[in-house]
Amino acid sequence: MQNYSYQPHGVCARQITFGIEDNKLHNVKFYGGCPGNTSAISKLLEGKEASEAVSILKGNDCGGRGTSCADQFAIAVEQALKQAGVA
To answer: Cβ-count burial of 73 within 10 angstroms (0-12 exposed, 13-18 middle, 19+ buried)?
Structure first.
């Protein structure tokens, strides 16, 4: 499994870590952010196809910020997939 760490921008979360194996997400963890929401996102994403998660989460907005923890996670996964030559 390839592990990734991403520093989000414009949101309360300070860091997001996750793994991708066989294009499936594992061990998604948000450091900071709204604990209930980020914990739920992490649980819902376990084992989900990385590209599907991107399509669901990309563009979600938090309070008019133009982004959200979910959107930042989608950006992180897109970057990871590009780095791995999948996207």
So the answer is: buried
Closest by CA position to 60, among listed 34, 87, 83, 29: 34
Q: Are 57 and 80 in contact (CB under 8 A)?
A: no
Q: Report pTM.
A: 0.94
Question: Any bridge partners for residue 16, and if so which?
Answer: 6, 30
Token duo for residue 61: 């907005």
Residue 6 phi, psi dihedral angles, 5° rounding: -135, 135
Average pLDDT of each block of 10 consecutive residues along the chain (87 residues)? 97 97 97 94 97 97 95 98 85
Number of other CB atoms surrounding residue 66 within 10 Å: 10
Judging by DSSP bridges, how do beta strands 24-31 and 2-6 pair with one another? unpaired
